[in-house]
Amino acid sequence: MLEKKLAMFPLDKIQITDDFWKGYMELVRTHVIPYQWEALNDRIEGAEPSRCIQNFRRAAGLEEGGFEGMVFQDSDVYKWLEAVAYSLTWHPDEALEKTADEAIDLIARAQQPDGYLDTYYILNGLDQRFTNLTDNHEMYCMGHMVEAAVAYYHATGKRKLLDVAAAFVNCAYENLGREPGKKRGYPGHEVAEMALAALYGITKDKRHLELAKYFIDERGQQPLYFAQEKKESGAEFFWKDSYFQYQYYQAGLPVREQDKAEGHAVRAVYLYSGMAEVASATEDQELFEACERLWNNIVEKQMYVTGAIGATAYGESFTFDYDLPNDTVYAETCAAIGLIFFARRMFEITKDSRYADVMERALYNGVISGMSLDGTKFFYVNPLEVVPEASQKDFNKMHVKVERQKWFGCACCPPNVARLLASIGGYAYEVSEDSIYMNLFLGGDMEAVLDGKENRFHVETHYPWDGEVTVQVENAQDSEFLLALRIPGWCRDWSLQVNGQDQNAAVEKGYACLRRTFQNGDQIRLQLSMPVTLVEANPRVREDIGKVAVMRGPVVYCLEEADNGDQLQQLYLQEQPEFQVQYEKELLKGVVTLTARGKRVSEKQWDARTLYQPYTGKSYEEQTLKFIPYYAWTNREPGEMLVWVRI
């Protein structure tokens, strides 16, 4: 049975209070959302203009002018609205809601009589709509509109955006499909598939699930629609000389025949998330098995230690198994977020912690690295090794920035980060009628009806800096339910107590399971041992041979020039280093740093005029190495950075 066993914890029933994540959520609410609204309205001095709201005003007939910006510019405001929706669920804000309602009014005013809504085609010619599904992102924009509409409906109960989105979906349903008179097209950039499944969850309109299933089933079928579309338009196929061809769009084969993650990384994991949704909703075992194969290929052969994916700037894509370069990596922030989307859906079907383990890895490393600690600058690319001069002068590394940017002309990542962090409570905790699963360890207060009775939980933790998590149960009536606490894959030693008594809890798919009758005042204490760990890569990863990454708990660490000097490639860790662990409250908004004795290759035996010389053995100078959390790098000053260290 593939039906979802769990659902995201309702965001209006949880208040996150812990120091780490509450800080991020408040940053999104008080800085990121207002900042991004200014960016969408082109009011950030020195930042690349968005033109997003301007396009909607022009499409609505409120001002003159043509379309400007990326063809998918509409999606930026939809992701912003989704972040707003999540924020409003845990922090009502009349002024923000009013701004969002006005944005929705503007969007609705641009909608066409038959429901169609894409400002690129409204301003450039509606006769051209649905003629370039391969590259022009109509269904991508529709998908993000749907996701925003679903979130805003859940947050406020208001249907206006939901009705606008449903009308656009119904328009797409009337134009795309296998029936006579329809185009047999599907999205070039996926996201609509998972969005439509979410819309169906509200509307129960079979057309919405049918369209999602059609988009998935038709993808990659022969004759290939994308190839036909190019032939009919006479447009050049941009990837005709590439190694991936139509697998850039994950369309080279029917999805059930695919077993390797290929092509554009964000598109891929968005598609796989939709496949998991549809497999669950339609009990499609074959489709789910394809999801499992693709998942395994990603995490076993194509994922960085930070949870990042997408090895090359060429097509922002996957390349081949074990190809994980650190200095030319792409590792788009959106791709790590998409991997989290995929992980959550697979977890909800299986209740298997291996999906939550990856979700945690990507979140603490590959995602929050994409935003500065003050919430005003962003990374598109998240490298694992940086030399500033190389980023300036090596064409193959110019996509690797040494400082986060104020905004981007292609600004998919900033609002994506905002919407994920604003909804993080729903990823941390998932529920069913008789169980609550703790996937991520976030302190806060939750309310849930379990065993037909109201229960309240108070969670305290200093995670990720400390491995102790306590859960206090508060209920008016004794209630029987399952409390399942994830034992992270990185943890080798742990203990569990209830009211001070050790528990020999059964571990099922990576979760310590407590099924009992809980009483008011019961206290559960989980202690996860969190030593510093040296991680090595599979020997087939050529770039990481003879190197290690340093981790503590879920956090990947790095060396930064600010602490260790330049020429970081000259540094070595000792074979069995002893680390000093220290919480530095005033550094980088409060982080645990790691120091250990190491060594640096000496340059004393080298003449500055000599590039090569006979090998006579290395000489070293001792040096203390200081590691900071990877996510916090380049928040002080730009400089070299290194994750994989020689040993």
Cα shape: globular
**Low-pLDDT stretches:** none
Number of distinct beta strands: 23
- The averaged pLDDT comes out at 96
- Give me the secondary-structure category: alpha+beta
Regarding quaternary structure, how should these chains be classified?
single chain
How would you characterize the largest beta sheet? Answer: 10 strands, antiparallel
- Helical run tally: 18
Give the fraction of residues assigned to helices.
25-40%
Distance, first to last CA = 47 Å
Strand content: 15-25%
Pfam families: Beta-AFase-like_GH127_cat (PF07944), Glyco_hydro127C (PF20737), Glyco_hydro127M (PF20736)
Protein name: Glycoside hydrolase family 127 protein
Domain Non-reducing end beta-L-arabinofuranosidase-like GH127 catalytic: 14-425
Domain Non-reducing end beta-L-arabinofuranosidase-like GH127 middle: 436-530
